[in-house]
Amino acid sequence: MSNEIDNLTLERFDASASARPMQTRHRAFSLARVRAITVNTLTELTRLKVFYVLLVFALLLIGSSIFMAQFTFQQEFQILKDVSLGAMSIFTSLLAIVATARLIPQDIEDRTVYTILAKPVPRLEYLLGKIAGVLLLLAISTLVMSAVFVLVLYMREQAVLHTTIRQMSAAPREQLDAAVRAVRASAFNIDMVPGITIIYLKACLLAALTLFVSTFATTNIFTIVVMAFIYFIGHLQATAREYWLQAHASGLITKIFLAVVALLFPDLQAFNLVDDIVAGTAISLGLFFKTALLGIFYTAIYTLLAAFVFYGKEL
Amino acid sequence: MTEPAIAVRGLTKIFPVPFHRQSITAVRDLDLRVEPGEVFGLLGPNGSGKSTTLKIILGLVSPTRGRTEIFGRDSRLVESRVAVGFLPENPYFYKYLTGEETLRFFGRLCGLGGARLRERINELLDLVGLTKARKQRLGTYSKGMLQRIGLAQALIHHPKLLVLDEPTAGVDPAGSREIRDLIRDLRHRGITVLLSSHLLAQAQEICDRVGILADGALVREGRLEELIAIENQTELVLENASGTLLNEIEGLAARSNARVIERRKSTTTLERLFLEATKK
C-alpha cells in the first residue's frame, strides 16, 4: 500500500477522531441488545434453504388435501383439517428442532460467538435473542400455514355450499338454511384457533429444549439425534407413566422420579389437541389454558436451563 | 501509579480431558500488566497459551486460578468489556449480512443507534477502505476484507482497549501493512492494544512491549528495544562512503580494541520490495 493511501486513510481517521467519544452507559439487561440478536437470528434462519423446503412441503401437503377422496362434506372437511393440522404440527416441530440445533454450535464454529460475547453482552441476552428469533420464525411459519389452511378450507366450503344450494334449490327455505348451517359448522369451528395456538406452543417448547441440548452438544447432528429420541419418548411417556403408576405404589420417591422424567421428556401427547378438533369435540377453555401454560412453563424452564449451562460453558 | 489497562495476576488455566485422568495446562502462573496507551505483543508458538490468555481476559473462558482485570474491573464481569474491542483470529462473522449490516449489528450490541451509529459506520467503512463493498455480503469478501471489517466492528464503540488475536494472519502484505499502520495510529490516539502473534518481524515493528509465552508460561517480558538490544554492539549506517573511508573506519576500530563484525550493503526489506512492485 502506498504512503499516499496510508496518509489518506489516517487523515480520514483523524477527522473521525475529533468526534465526541461514544459513552454509552452499560445496562445489566438491555432489550435493545436482545432485539438486535433476535432480528439477526431471524434473518439467519430465513436465509436457510431448509426453512423454505419445509414450509413449501407443508403448504403443498395442506393444499393437496383438497383433492383427497371423500364421501360426504363432513368427511371431506374432517380429512382436510386432519391432514392440514397434522402437517402443521409435524412441520413446526421439525422446523423448531432443525432451526435451533444449529444456532449455537454454528456460532462457536464460526467464532462469531466470541465477537458477540466480547462486547458487553451478557450470555443470557445472547440466548434470549437466539430463542426469540426462532420463536418469531415459528410464529411466521404457523401464520403462513394457517392462512393457506383457512384459504383451502374456505374454498372447499364455498364449493360445497354452491353444490348444496344447487341440489336443494327445490327444497323448502328452512331445510336449505339448515343444510347451509350444517356445512358452515363442519367447515369452520372456533376450536381451530386454540388448536393452532397449542401446535405453536408445542413447537416453542421443542425449540427451547433443543436450545438446552445444544448448549452442551458439540455438533448439531448430535442435538438433532437426541431431540428425535426425546420427541418419540415424549409422545409415549404419558402412557408409560400411567402403566408404571399402576404397577408401583405412588410414594414420594415415585413422584420425584416421575417429575424428573417429565422434565427430561415433556409429555408431548398432552399438546395433541388436533384429534379433538377434527372429531368436532369442543376444547374446553380450562384444557386450553392448562395446556398453553404447560407449554409456556416448559419453554421458560428449558431456556433458563440452557442459560445456566451456557453461563458456565468454556468457549 | 496509573491503573493498568490489563492486569493479570497468578493466572492458571487447566483444561480437563474428558474420560482421561490427565489434564492440559494451557496457562501457568501468568503475571502480566499492560499499561494504558501502549501496544503490547503476546508472542509465542502455536499452542503456547496466547489465545487462551486472551479469552480469559475477555471473559470467554474462566480461569482455574488467578485474576484478570480490565481497567480495574474483574474481566469476568460483563461491564468490564464496555470499553473493549476484540478481533478474533480468522473471524467469520455472518455471511448473509453485508458489511454495513454487520457494523450496524455490532453497533447495536454496544448500545449505539440512530444517526450516531450511521455516522460511525460511514467513518469506519471509510477507514478500513470498504465503502464500495458496504452493500456486499460478507460471503463474497476476501480474507483481507473480512479482517478489515473485523477491525471496524472492534472499533465501532470507540474502545479504550483493543484486543487482536493474530490480526495479520492470512492477510496479504498490503493488507497486513494497512493493519499495522492502523494499529500504530491507534496507539498515537491513546488506545491500548493487546495483540497476539507469531509473526515476530511484524510484532517487532509495532509493539512497545512484548511478552513471550512458551508452554503456557511467560518466559520473557519487557520493552522491545531492551529485550532485543545487544549491549556491546553498535550499528552504523553510512551513505556514499568510499572504500577508503570504510577501510579507515575498520582500522580505527582495530586500534581502539573494537572489532567490525560484518560489513555489507544495506538492503531493503522483502516486504517493501513486494509493496513497491505491486503498487497500483
SSE-based structural type of chain B? alpha/beta
Largest sheet of chain A: none
Helix coverage percent of residues of chain A? Answer: over 70%
> Strand fraction band of chain B?
15-25%
- Note the quaternary state here: heterodimer
- Distance linking N and C termini of chain A: 36 Å
Determine the fraction of residues in helical runs of chain B and give it as a percent range.
25-40%
Number of domains of chain A: 1
How much of the sequence of chain A is in beta strands? under 5%
Distance between the termini of chain B: 48 Å
Number of helices of chain A: 12
Question: What would you say this structure looks like, in words?
Answer:
By secondary structure, chain A is mainly alpha-helical. Chain A has one domain. Chain A contains 12 helices and no strands. Chain A starts with a helix and ends with a helix. The N terminus of chain A is likely disordered. With about 280 residues, chain B is of the alpha/beta class. Chain B has 3 domains: about 120 residues, 3-Layer(aba) Sandwich (Rossmann fold), CATH 3.40.50.300; about 80 residues, no CATH class; about 50 residues, no CATH class. Chain B is about 35% helix and about 25% strand. Chain B is built from 9 helices and 10 strands. In chain B, a hairpin with a 2-residue loop joins strand 9 and strand 10. Chain B is globular, with a radius of gyration of 22 Å. Chain B starts with 5 loop residues before the first strand and ends with a helix.
